Amino acid sequence: MDIQAWTYVIVTLTFIIYIGIAIWARASTTSEFYVAGKGVSSLANGMATAADWMSAASFISMAGLISFMGRDGSMYLMGWTGGYVLLALLLAPYLRKFGKYTVPDFVGERYYSHVARIVAVCCAIFISFTYVAGQMRGVGVVFSRFLEVNISTGVIIGMGIVFFYAVMGGMKGITYTQVAQYCILIFAFLVPAIFISIMMTNNPIPQLGFGSKLVGSEGVYLLDKLDGLNQELGFAAYTSGVKSKLDIFCITAALMVGTAGLPHVIVRFFTVRRVRDARYSAGWALVFIAILYTTAPAVAAFARTNLINTVNDKEYVNIPSWFKNWEKTGLIAWVDKNNDGIVQYRSGAPFEGKPQFNEGMGLGAHGQRLLSNDLTDCTNELFVDSDIMVLANPEIARLPNWVVGLVAAGGLAAALSTAAGLLLVISTSIAHDLMKKIFVPHITEKQELLFARIAAGLAVVLAGYFGVHPPGFVAQVVAFAFGLAASSFFPVIFLGIFSKRMNKEGAISGMLTGIIFTAGYIIYFKFINPSANIPQKWLFGISPEGIGAVGMVLNFVVALVVSRFTAPPPAHVQALVEEIRIPKGASEAHEISA
User: Fold this and answer.
1) For a surface tag, which of 271, 301, 493, 576 has the fewest beta carbons within 10 Å of its beta carbon?
2) pLDDT tens per residue across span 337-387
3) Are residues 349 and 442 both part of a single domain?
4) Nearest to 511 by CA among 559, 561, 444, 553
Protein backbone atom coordinates (compact mmCIF):
# COMPACT_ATOMS: atom_id res chain seq x y z
CA MET A 1 0.00 0.00 0.00
CA ASP A 2 1.10 3.58 -0.59
CA ILE A 3 1.57 6.19 2.13
CA GLN A 4 -1.92 7.63 1.83
CA ALA A 5 -3.57 4.21 2.10
CA TRP A 6 -1.51 3.28 5.17
CA THR A 7 -2.33 6.63 6.73
CA TYR A 8 -6.07 6.19 6.17
CA VAL A 9 -5.98 2.71 7.70
CA ILE A 10 -3.92 3.61 10.78
CA VAL A 11 -5.62 6.96 11.46
CA THR A 12 -9.08 5.41 11.05
CA LEU A 13 -8.23 2.63 13.50
CA THR A 14 -6.98 5.13 16.09
CA PHE A 15 -10.09 7.27 15.68
CA ILE A 16 -12.29 4.19 16.21
CA ILE A 17 -10.36 3.47 19.42
CA TYR A 18 -10.84 7.04 20.66
CA ILE A 19 -14.57 7.06 19.92
CA GLY A 20 -15.04 3.61 21.46
CA ILE A 21 -13.32 4.69 24.67
CA ALA A 22 -15.42 7.87 24.77
CA ILE A 23 -18.63 5.84 24.53
CA TRP A 24 -17.43 3.38 27.20
CA ALA A 25 -16.27 6.11 29.59
CA ARG A 26 -18.95 8.72 28.99
CA ALA A 27 -19.59 11.03 31.94
CA SER A 28 -22.94 10.89 33.73
CA THR A 29 -22.20 13.33 36.59
CA THR A 30 -20.45 16.67 36.91
CA SER A 31 -17.72 15.04 39.02
CA GLU A 32 -17.01 12.57 36.19
CA PHE A 33 -17.15 15.37 33.60
CA TYR A 34 -14.80 17.71 35.53
CA VAL A 35 -12.36 15.37 37.34
CA ALA A 36 -13.20 11.79 36.20
CA GLY A 37 -14.86 11.10 39.55
CA LYS A 38 -11.45 11.38 41.29
CA GLY A 39 -10.97 7.67 40.65
CA VAL A 40 -8.04 7.48 38.23
CA SER A 41 -4.98 5.46 39.28
CA SER A 42 -1.61 7.25 39.51
CA LEU A 43 -0.13 5.16 36.66
CA ALA A 44 -3.03 5.83 34.29
CA ASN A 45 -3.10 9.49 35.31
CA GLY A 46 0.64 9.78 34.70
CA MET A 47 0.20 8.37 31.21
CA ALA A 48 -2.80 10.60 30.52
CA THR A 49 -0.90 13.61 31.86
CA ALA A 50 2.02 12.83 29.54
CA ALA A 51 -0.35 12.69 26.55
CA ASP A 52 -2.10 15.87 27.70
CA TRP A 53 1.29 17.49 28.06
CA MET A 54 3.05 16.20 24.93
CA SER A 55 1.07 18.19 22.45
CA ALA A 56 1.65 18.90 18.79
CA ALA A 57 4.40 21.23 19.98
CA SER A 58 6.29 18.34 21.57
CA PHE A 59 5.61 15.71 18.91
CA ILE A 60 5.61 17.76 15.71
CA SER A 61 7.35 21.05 16.32
CA MET A 62 9.95 20.74 19.08
CA ALA A 63 12.41 18.51 17.20
CA GLY A 64 11.83 20.67 14.12
CA LEU A 65 12.82 23.80 16.00
CA ILE A 66 15.88 22.08 17.48
CA SER A 67 16.91 20.93 14.00
CA PHE A 68 17.05 24.57 12.85
CA MET A 69 18.11 26.25 16.11
CA GLY A 70 20.71 23.70 17.18
CA ARG A 71 21.90 24.11 20.76
CA ASP A 72 19.58 27.05 21.40
CA GLY A 73 16.63 24.68 20.97
CA SER A 74 17.58 22.98 24.24
CA MET A 75 15.65 25.70 26.08
CA TYR A 76 12.42 23.93 25.11
CA LEU A 77 13.69 20.66 26.57
CA MET A 78 14.93 22.25 29.80
CA GLY A 79 11.91 24.47 30.30
CA TRP A 80 9.20 21.91 29.67
CA THR A 81 10.79 19.09 31.68
CA GLY A 82 11.98 21.37 34.51
CA GLY A 83 8.45 22.68 34.85
CA TYR A 84 7.23 19.24 35.76
CA VAL A 85 9.69 19.08 38.65
CA LEU A 86 8.23 22.34 39.95
CA LEU A 87 4.74 20.99 39.49
CA ALA A 88 5.47 17.75 41.33
CA LEU A 89 7.23 19.39 44.27
CA LEU A 90 5.44 22.71 44.74
CA LEU A 91 1.88 22.46 43.46
CA ALA A 92 0.38 19.07 42.60
CA PRO A 93 -0.03 17.50 46.07
CA TYR A 94 -1.29 20.72 47.66
CA LEU A 95 -3.84 21.41 44.96
CA ARG A 96 -5.10 17.83 45.18
CA LYS A 97 -5.45 18.24 48.94
CA PHE A 98 -7.50 21.39 48.30
CA GLY A 99 -9.82 19.15 46.32
CA LYS A 100 -11.68 21.52 43.99
CA TYR A 101 -12.47 21.08 40.31
CA THR A 102 -10.50 23.87 38.60
CA VAL A 103 -7.71 26.41 39.00
CA PRO A 104 -10.21 29.33 39.04
CA ASP A 105 -12.04 27.39 41.77
CA PHE A 106 -8.85 27.39 43.85
CA VAL A 107 -8.26 31.09 43.18
CA GLY A 108 -11.87 31.99 44.00
CA GLU A 109 -11.94 30.03 47.28
CA ARG A 110 -8.41 30.86 48.40
CA TYR A 111 -8.82 34.57 47.70
CA TYR A 112 -12.46 34.69 48.88
CA SER A 113 -13.54 36.81 45.92
CA HIS A 114 -15.83 36.51 42.89
CA VAL A 115 -13.66 39.12 41.16
CA ALA A 116 -10.56 36.97 41.65
CA ARG A 117 -12.46 33.97 40.28
CA ILE A 118 -13.61 35.90 37.20
CA VAL A 119 -10.09 37.20 36.52
CA ALA A 120 -8.78 33.62 36.84
CA VAL A 121 -11.48 32.36 34.46
CA CYS A 122 -10.56 35.01 31.88
CA CYS A 123 -6.87 34.10 32.20
CA ALA A 124 -7.64 30.37 31.87
CA ILE A 125 -9.76 30.88 28.75
CA PHE A 126 -7.24 33.26 27.15
CA ILE A 127 -4.32 30.88 27.84
CA SER A 128 -6.25 27.82 26.69
CA PHE A 129 -7.34 29.35 23.39
CA THR A 130 -3.78 30.52 22.71
CA TYR A 131 -2.53 27.00 23.37
CA VAL A 132 -5.25 25.21 21.44
CA ALA A 133 -4.46 27.26 18.32
CA GLY A 134 -1.14 25.41 18.11
CA GLN A 135 -2.83 22.03 18.45
CA MET A 136 -5.34 22.69 15.71
CA ARG A 137 -2.58 23.90 13.40
CA GLY A 138 -0.78 20.62 14.07
CA VAL A 139 -3.89 18.68 13.12
CA GLY A 140 -4.19 20.70 9.92
CA VAL A 141 -0.53 20.12 8.99
CA VAL A 142 -0.87 16.35 9.36
CA PHE A 143 -4.11 16.13 7.38
CA SER A 144 -2.91 18.47 4.64
CA ARG A 145 0.03 16.25 3.79
CA PHE A 146 -0.95 12.67 4.50
CA LEU A 147 -4.65 12.71 3.68
CA GLU A 148 -4.21 15.29 0.91
CA VAL A 149 -6.86 17.68 2.14
CA ASN A 150 -6.32 21.37 2.79
CA ILE A 151 -5.46 22.58 6.27
CA SER A 152 -8.93 24.01 6.89
CA THR A 153 -10.62 20.69 6.10
CA GLY A 154 -8.11 18.86 8.29
CA VAL A 155 -8.89 21.17 11.19
CA ILE A 156 -12.64 20.56 10.76
CA ILE A 157 -12.12 16.77 10.85
CA GLY A 158 -10.04 17.12 14.01
CA MET A 159 -12.71 19.34 15.55
CA GLY A 160 -15.32 16.67 14.94
CA ILE A 161 -13.32 13.94 16.68
CA VAL A 162 -12.46 16.14 19.68
CA PHE A 163 -16.05 17.35 19.91
CA PHE A 164 -17.32 13.79 20.15
CA TYR A 165 -15.17 12.49 23.01
CA ALA A 166 -14.69 15.79 24.88
CA VAL A 167 -18.39 16.70 24.93
CA MET A 168 -19.65 13.17 25.61
CA GLY A 169 -16.96 11.85 27.94
CA GLY A 170 -15.71 14.95 29.74
CA MET A 171 -12.61 14.38 31.87
CA LYS A 172 -13.46 10.70 32.35
CA GLY A 173 -13.61 10.02 28.62
CA ILE A 174 -10.63 12.28 27.90
CA THR A 175 -8.46 10.59 30.55
CA TYR A 176 -8.79 7.07 29.19
CA THR A 177 -8.62 8.30 25.61
CA GLN A 178 -5.35 10.02 26.47
CA VAL A 179 -3.92 6.78 27.85
CA ALA A 180 -4.49 5.23 24.41
CA GLN A 181 -3.15 8.36 22.69
CA TYR A 182 0.06 8.24 24.72
CA CYS A 183 0.70 4.65 23.65
CA ILE A 184 0.13 5.59 20.01
CA LEU A 185 2.18 8.80 20.00
CA ILE A 186 5.19 7.39 21.84
CA PHE A 187 5.28 4.30 19.60
CA ALA A 188 4.97 6.52 16.52
CA PHE A 189 7.81 8.77 17.71
CA LEU A 190 10.21 5.97 18.69
CA VAL A 191 9.82 3.58 15.76
CA PRO A 192 11.22 5.90 13.04
CA ALA A 193 13.84 7.26 15.48
CA ILE A 194 15.12 3.73 16.13
CA PHE A 195 15.06 2.85 12.41
CA ILE A 196 17.00 5.97 11.43
CA SER A 197 19.47 5.63 14.31
CA ILE A 198 20.34 2.13 13.11
CA MET A 199 20.66 3.30 9.50
CA MET A 200 22.90 6.27 10.34
CA THR A 201 24.93 5.07 13.35
CA ASN A 202 24.35 1.31 13.74
CA ASN A 203 23.00 2.08 17.23
CA PRO A 204 19.37 1.10 17.97
CA ILE A 205 19.08 3.57 20.85
CA PRO A 206 18.52 7.08 19.40
CA GLN A 207 19.78 8.81 22.56
CA LEU A 208 23.13 7.02 22.09
CA GLY A 209 23.09 7.31 18.32
CA PHE A 210 22.94 11.09 18.80
CA GLY A 211 26.53 10.95 20.08
CA SER A 212 27.79 8.14 17.86
CA LYS A 213 29.89 7.89 14.71
CA LEU A 214 28.17 7.88 11.34
CA VAL A 215 28.16 4.73 9.26
CA GLY A 216 30.70 4.90 6.41
CA SER A 217 32.16 8.24 7.52
CA GLU A 218 35.59 7.03 8.62
CA GLY A 219 35.03 7.74 12.29
CA VAL A 220 33.20 11.11 11.99
CA TYR A 221 30.67 11.75 14.74
CA LEU A 222 27.12 12.82 13.84
CA LEU A 223 27.34 16.22 15.56
CA ASP A 224 30.76 16.96 14.05
CA LYS A 225 29.37 16.14 10.61
CA LEU A 226 26.36 18.39 11.21
CA ASP A 227 28.56 21.24 12.45
CA GLY A 228 30.61 20.98 9.25
CA LEU A 229 27.56 20.86 6.98
CA ASN A 230 26.02 23.91 8.66
CA GLN A 231 29.20 25.95 8.40
CA GLU A 232 29.77 24.98 4.77
CA LEU A 233 26.32 26.36 3.94
CA GLY A 234 26.84 29.60 5.87
CA PHE A 235 24.90 28.68 9.02
CA ALA A 236 26.29 28.82 12.56
CA ALA A 237 27.71 25.55 13.86
CA TYR A 238 24.89 23.28 15.02
CA THR A 239 26.36 22.95 18.51
CA SER A 240 26.98 26.68 18.94
CA GLY A 241 24.54 29.16 20.43
CA VAL A 242 23.23 32.25 18.66
CA LYS A 243 20.61 33.68 21.02
CA SER A 244 21.67 35.76 24.02
CA LYS A 245 22.04 33.94 27.33
CA LEU A 246 19.53 36.29 28.99
CA ASP A 247 16.88 35.52 26.39
CA ILE A 248 17.49 31.76 26.66
CA PHE A 249 17.26 32.03 30.45
CA CYS A 250 13.98 33.97 30.26
CA ILE A 251 12.42 31.61 27.71
CA THR A 252 13.46 28.58 29.79
CA ALA A 253 12.09 30.19 32.96
CA ALA A 254 8.82 31.15 31.25
CA LEU A 255 8.36 27.62 29.93
CA MET A 256 9.25 26.12 33.31
CA VAL A 257 6.94 28.15 35.52
CA GLY A 258 4.35 28.24 32.74
CA THR A 259 4.24 24.44 32.94
CA ALA A 260 3.50 24.68 36.65
CA GLY A 261 0.76 27.23 35.95
CA LEU A 262 -1.06 25.69 33.00
CA PRO A 263 -4.66 25.00 34.04
CA HIS A 264 -5.17 21.94 31.82
CA VAL A 265 -2.11 20.28 33.38
CA ILE A 266 -2.96 21.20 36.96
CA VAL A 267 -6.51 19.88 36.71
CA ARG A 268 -5.13 16.41 35.94
CA PHE A 269 -4.01 16.12 39.56
CA PHE A 270 -7.58 16.61 40.77
CA THR A 271 -8.55 13.29 39.13
CA VAL A 272 -6.67 10.91 41.48
CA ARG A 273 -7.93 9.37 44.70
CA ARG A 274 -5.38 10.67 47.23
CA VAL A 275 -2.77 13.38 47.71
CA ARG A 276 -0.03 10.76 47.52
CA ASP A 277 -1.34 9.65 44.14
CA ALA A 278 -0.99 13.21 42.83
CA ARG A 279 2.74 13.14 43.58
CA TYR A 280 3.12 9.64 42.09
CA SER A 281 1.24 10.82 39.00
CA ALA A 282 3.75 13.60 38.48
CA GLY A 283 6.59 11.11 38.82
CA TRP A 284 5.08 8.70 36.30
CA ALA A 285 4.38 11.59 33.93
CA LEU A 286 8.05 12.63 34.09
CA VAL A 287 9.14 9.11 33.14
CA PHE A 288 6.73 8.92 30.21
CA ILE A 289 7.62 12.43 29.03
CA ALA A 290 11.37 11.80 29.31
CA ILE A 291 11.12 8.94 26.80
CA LEU A 292 10.12 11.39 24.06
CA TYR A 293 12.10 14.38 25.25
CA THR A 294 15.42 12.55 25.39
CA THR A 295 14.76 11.21 21.89
CA ALA A 296 13.86 14.59 20.33
CA PRO A 297 17.44 15.97 20.01
CA ALA A 298 18.48 12.83 18.14
CA VAL A 299 15.48 13.07 15.82
CA ALA A 300 16.33 16.73 15.17
CA ALA A 301 19.94 15.95 14.26
CA PHE A 302 18.98 12.98 12.07
CA ALA A 303 16.35 15.03 10.22
CA ARG A 304 18.60 18.01 9.51
CA THR A 305 21.50 15.85 8.34
CA ASN A 306 19.23 13.87 6.01
CA LEU A 307 17.54 17.03 4.72
CA ILE A 308 20.84 18.65 3.75
CA ASN A 309 22.27 15.48 2.20
CA THR A 310 19.06 14.73 0.30
CA VAL A 311 18.11 18.16 -1.04
CA ASN A 312 21.08 20.53 -1.16
CA ASP A 313 22.75 20.98 -4.55
CA LYS A 314 20.49 18.38 -6.17
CA GLU A 315 18.73 18.87 -9.51
CA TYR A 316 15.05 19.59 -8.98
CA VAL A 317 14.01 17.11 -11.70
CA ASN A 318 15.70 14.35 -9.68
CA ILE A 319 14.49 15.51 -6.26
CA PRO A 320 12.78 12.75 -4.19
CA SER A 321 9.01 12.46 -4.33
CA TRP A 322 8.57 13.40 -0.65
CA PHE A 323 9.82 16.93 -1.45
CA LYS A 324 7.25 17.46 -4.20
CA ASN A 325 4.48 16.00 -2.04
CA TRP A 326 5.24 18.46 0.77
CA GLU A 327 5.39 21.31 -1.76
CA LYS A 328 1.69 20.84 -2.33
CA THR A 329 1.04 21.86 1.29
CA GLY A 330 3.02 25.10 0.98
CA LEU A 331 5.19 24.07 3.95
CA ILE A 332 8.31 23.53 1.83
CA ALA A 333 9.16 25.46 -1.33
CA TRP A 334 11.92 26.16 -3.83
CA VAL A 335 12.63 29.18 -6.00
CA ASP A 336 15.24 28.77 -8.75
CA LYS A 337 16.89 32.19 -8.43
CA ASN A 338 19.74 31.56 -10.85
CA ASN A 339 17.78 29.38 -13.26
CA ASP A 340 20.22 26.45 -13.05
CA GLY A 341 17.60 23.89 -11.99
CA ILE A 342 19.53 23.02 -8.81
CA VAL A 343 18.14 23.36 -5.27
CA GLN A 344 20.60 25.46 -3.28
CA TYR A 345 20.10 25.50 0.49
CA ARG A 346 22.10 28.28 2.15
CA SER A 347 21.84 30.57 5.16
CA GLY A 348 19.35 33.41 4.88
CA ALA A 349 15.63 33.66 4.22
CA PRO A 350 14.81 33.13 0.53
CA PHE A 351 11.21 34.32 0.85
CA GLU A 352 8.37 34.05 3.32
CA GLY A 353 6.09 31.06 2.96
CA LYS A 354 2.32 31.47 3.02
CA PRO A 355 -0.17 28.61 3.44
CA GLN A 356 -2.59 30.08 0.91
CA PHE A 357 -2.48 32.11 -2.30
CA ASN A 358 -2.71 35.90 -1.93
CA GLU A 359 -3.82 37.83 -4.97
CA GLY A 360 -1.03 39.97 -6.45
CA MET A 361 1.69 38.52 -4.23
CA GLY A 362 2.81 35.76 -6.52
CA LEU A 363 2.53 31.98 -6.70
CA GLY A 364 5.69 30.13 -7.66
CA ALA A 365 5.83 27.50 -10.38
CA HIS A 366 6.55 24.69 -7.89
CA GLY A 367 3.86 25.50 -5.33
CA GLN A 368 5.83 27.99 -3.26
CA ARG A 369 4.01 31.02 -1.84
CA LEU A 370 5.79 34.36 -2.09
CA LEU A 371 5.28 37.68 -0.36
CA SER A 372 7.74 39.41 -2.63
CA ASN A 373 9.02 38.95 -6.15
CA ASP A 374 12.46 40.27 -5.14
CA LEU A 375 14.53 37.09 -5.29
CA THR A 376 17.99 38.68 -5.45
CA ASP A 377 18.58 39.35 -1.73
CA CYS A 378 20.55 36.15 -1.01
CA THR A 379 21.56 32.83 -2.49
CA ASN A 380 19.18 30.64 -0.47
CA GLU A 381 16.50 29.05 -2.65
CA LEU A 382 14.77 26.80 -0.12
CA PHE A 383 11.97 27.50 2.34
CA VAL A 384 11.26 24.85 4.98
CA ASP A 385 8.59 25.16 7.68
CA SER A 386 10.13 23.67 10.84
CA ASP A 387 6.82 21.99 11.70
CA ILE A 388 7.29 19.39 8.95
CA MET A 389 10.64 17.96 10.06
CA VAL A 390 9.34 15.17 12.30
CA LEU A 391 6.50 14.29 9.93
CA ALA A 392 8.72 14.27 6.84
CA ASN A 393 11.67 12.56 8.53
CA PRO A 394 10.57 8.96 7.77
CA GLU A 395 10.02 9.85 4.12
CA ILE A 396 13.39 11.60 3.88
CA ALA A 397 15.05 8.49 5.34
CA ARG A 398 13.03 6.25 2.95
CA LEU A 399 11.44 4.20 5.70
CA PRO A 400 8.53 1.83 4.93
CA ASN A 401 5.20 3.46 4.10
CA TRP A 402 3.50 2.05 7.21
CA VAL A 403 6.00 3.95 9.39
CA VAL A 404 5.05 7.21 7.67
CA GLY A 405 1.36 6.49 8.32
CA LEU A 406 2.14 5.65 11.94
CA VAL A 407 3.89 8.99 12.43
CA ALA A 408 0.85 10.79 11.03
CA ALA A 409 -1.37 8.98 13.54
CA GLY A 410 1.06 9.87 16.34
CA GLY A 411 1.01 13.54 15.42
CA LEU A 412 -2.79 13.54 15.46
CA ALA A 413 -2.84 11.74 18.82
CA ALA A 414 -0.51 14.34 20.33
CA ALA A 415 -2.51 17.30 19.02
CA LEU A 416 -5.96 15.91 19.82
CA SER A 417 -5.07 14.76 23.35
CA THR A 418 -3.92 18.22 24.39
CA ALA A 419 -6.72 19.99 22.52
CA ALA A 420 -9.28 17.93 24.44
CA GLY A 421 -7.72 18.84 27.80
CA LEU A 422 -7.67 22.52 26.91
CA LEU A 423 -11.26 22.53 25.71
CA LEU A 424 -12.33 20.88 28.95
CA VAL A 425 -10.65 23.68 30.93
CA ILE A 426 -12.63 26.22 28.92
CA SER A 427 -15.94 24.41 29.38
CA THR A 428 -15.48 23.82 33.13
CA SER A 429 -14.36 27.41 33.67
CA ILE A 430 -17.57 28.63 32.07
CA ALA A 431 -20.02 26.06 33.45
CA HIS A 432 -18.63 25.60 36.96
CA ASP A 433 -16.75 28.79 37.82
CA LEU A 434 -19.03 31.30 36.11
CA MET A 435 -22.49 29.75 35.89
CA LYS A 436 -22.58 27.56 39.00
CA LYS A 437 -20.44 29.66 41.33
CA ILE A 438 -21.50 33.19 40.32
CA PHE A 439 -24.39 33.77 37.94
CA VAL A 440 -26.87 30.92 38.55
CA PRO A 441 -25.77 29.15 41.75
CA HIS A 442 -29.03 27.21 42.17
CA ILE A 443 -28.87 25.20 38.94
CA THR A 444 -29.13 21.44 39.20
CA GLU A 445 -26.25 19.08 38.47
CA LYS A 446 -27.98 18.03 35.24
CA GLN A 447 -28.25 21.67 34.11
CA GLU A 448 -24.61 22.32 35.01
CA LEU A 449 -23.55 19.29 32.97
CA LEU A 450 -25.58 20.61 30.02
CA PHE A 451 -23.89 24.03 30.32
CA ALA A 452 -20.48 22.32 30.36
CA ARG A 453 -21.23 20.37 27.18
CA ILE A 454 -22.58 23.43 25.37
CA ALA A 455 -19.49 25.43 26.40
CA ALA A 456 -17.23 22.60 25.19
CA GLY A 457 -19.01 22.55 21.82
CA LEU A 458 -18.67 26.31 21.33
CA ALA A 459 -15.02 26.13 22.40
CA VAL A 460 -14.34 23.45 19.75
CA VAL A 461 -15.75 25.71 17.03
CA LEU A 462 -13.70 28.71 18.15
CA ALA A 463 -10.59 26.54 18.48
CA GLY A 464 -11.08 25.43 14.89
CA TYR A 465 -11.02 29.05 13.75
CA PHE A 466 -7.69 29.56 15.51
CA GLY A 467 -6.40 26.40 13.87
CA VAL A 468 -7.19 27.77 10.41
CA HIS A 469 -5.71 31.19 11.27
CA PRO A 470 -2.83 30.47 13.70
CA PRO A 471 -0.45 33.23 14.89
CA GLY A 472 2.78 31.28 14.26
CA PHE A 473 4.56 27.92 14.31
CA VAL A 474 3.07 25.33 16.65
CA ALA A 475 5.84 25.51 19.25
CA GLN A 476 5.93 29.32 19.09
CA VAL A 477 2.20 29.59 19.73
CA VAL A 478 2.51 27.18 22.64
CA ALA A 479 5.45 29.16 24.02
CA PHE A 480 3.21 32.23 24.16
CA ALA A 481 0.62 30.25 26.15
CA PHE A 482 3.31 29.23 28.64
CA GLY A 483 4.40 32.84 29.02
CA LEU A 484 0.82 33.88 29.73
CA ALA A 485 0.43 31.07 32.29
CA ALA A 486 3.73 31.98 33.94
CA SER A 487 2.78 35.63 34.27
CA SER A 488 -0.76 35.05 35.56
CA PHE A 489 -1.38 31.76 37.38
CA PHE A 490 1.92 30.56 38.81
CA PRO A 491 2.51 33.45 41.28
CA VAL A 492 -1.03 33.45 42.68
CA ILE A 493 -1.10 29.66 43.06
CA PHE A 494 2.36 29.56 44.65
CA LEU A 495 1.61 32.44 47.03
CA GLY A 496 -1.85 31.04 47.72
CA ILE A 497 -0.24 27.85 49.03
CA PHE A 498 2.82 29.21 50.82
CA SER A 499 1.80 32.69 52.05
CA LYS A 500 -0.99 33.14 54.59
CA ARG A 501 -0.63 36.93 54.20
CA MET A 502 -1.49 36.99 50.48
CA ASN A 503 -4.95 38.49 50.05
CA LYS A 504 -7.47 39.00 47.26
CA GLU A 505 -6.32 42.54 46.42
CA GLY A 506 -2.75 41.33 45.90
CA ALA A 507 -3.81 38.31 43.85
CA ILE A 508 -6.11 40.26 41.53
CA SER A 509 -3.58 43.08 41.03
CA GLY A 510 -0.77 40.61 40.35
CA MET A 511 -2.72 38.53 37.85
CA LEU A 512 -3.92 41.56 35.91
CA THR A 513 -0.47 43.17 35.86
CA GLY A 514 1.28 39.99 34.74
CA ILE A 515 -1.06 38.93 31.96
CA ILE A 516 -1.72 42.45 30.61
CA PHE A 517 2.02 43.20 30.41
CA THR A 518 2.88 39.84 28.84
CA ALA A 519 -0.03 39.76 26.39
CA GLY A 520 0.58 43.39 25.41
CA TYR A 521 4.27 42.71 24.71
CA ILE A 522 3.48 39.62 22.61
CA ILE A 523 0.66 41.29 20.68
CA TYR A 524 2.77 44.37 19.92
CA PHE A 525 5.76 42.51 18.51
CA LYS A 526 3.83 39.70 16.81
CA PHE A 527 0.78 41.51 15.43
CA ILE A 528 0.88 45.30 15.78
CA ASN A 529 4.50 45.93 14.75
CA PRO A 530 6.11 42.65 13.62
CA SER A 531 8.85 44.55 11.77
CA ALA A 532 10.19 45.61 15.19
CA ASN A 533 10.43 41.99 16.37
CA ILE A 534 14.25 41.99 16.47
CA PRO A 535 16.65 41.68 19.45
CA GLN A 536 17.64 45.35 19.21
CA LYS A 537 14.03 46.44 19.81
CA TRP A 538 13.16 44.00 22.60
CA LEU A 539 13.09 45.01 26.27
CA PHE A 540 16.54 44.05 27.63
CA GLY A 541 16.90 41.84 24.56
CA ILE A 542 14.13 39.49 25.77
CA SER A 543 12.00 37.98 23.02
CA PRO A 544 8.18 37.66 23.12
CA GLU A 545 8.63 33.94 23.85
CA GLY A 546 10.56 34.78 27.03
CA ILE A 547 8.74 37.86 28.26
CA GLY A 548 6.48 35.73 30.46
CA ALA A 549 9.37 35.44 32.93
CA VAL A 550 9.38 39.23 33.33
CA GLY A 551 5.59 39.23 33.63
CA MET A 552 5.86 36.64 36.38
CA VAL A 553 8.32 38.80 38.35
CA LEU A 554 5.99 41.80 37.97
CA ASN A 555 3.09 39.65 39.19
CA PHE A 556 5.03 38.58 42.29
CA VAL A 557 6.17 42.12 43.07
CA VAL A 558 2.75 43.74 42.62
CA ALA A 559 0.95 40.98 44.52
CA LEU A 560 3.31 41.12 47.49
CA VAL A 561 3.38 44.93 47.68
CA VAL A 562 -0.40 45.34 47.38
CA SER A 563 -1.06 42.62 49.95
CA ARG A 564 1.20 44.38 52.48
CA PHE A 565 -0.75 47.63 52.22
CA THR A 566 -4.23 46.06 52.38
CA ALA A 567 -6.11 44.05 54.96
CA PRO A 568 -4.92 40.48 55.66
CA PRO A 569 -7.11 37.52 54.65
CA PRO A 570 -9.85 36.39 57.05
CA ALA A 571 -8.92 33.89 59.75
CA HIS A 572 -10.72 30.99 58.04
CA VAL A 573 -8.70 31.55 54.85
CA GLN A 574 -5.42 31.55 56.79
CA ALA A 575 -6.55 28.33 58.47
CA LEU A 576 -7.30 26.89 55.00
CA VAL A 577 -3.71 27.66 53.90
CA GLU A 578 -2.39 25.87 56.99
CA GLU A 579 -4.60 22.88 56.26
CA ILE A 580 -3.47 22.69 52.62
CA ARG A 581 0.23 23.15 53.28
CA ILE A 582 0.84 21.23 56.51
CA PRO A 583 0.06 17.49 56.65
CA LYS A 584 -2.66 16.45 59.04
CA GLY A 585 -1.29 15.76 62.53
CA ALA A 586 2.04 17.49 61.86
CA SER A 587 1.40 20.33 64.32
CA GLU A 588 0.37 17.89 67.08
CA ALA A 589 3.49 15.79 66.50
CA HIS A 590 5.63 18.91 66.68
CA GLU A 591 4.08 19.92 70.00
CA ILE A 592 4.64 16.43 71.48
CA SER A 593 8.29 16.33 70.40
CA ALA A 594 8.84 19.80 71.86
Assistant:
1) 576
2) 778 888 888 887 665 444 333 333 333 333 333 334 444 456 788 888 787
3) no
4) 559
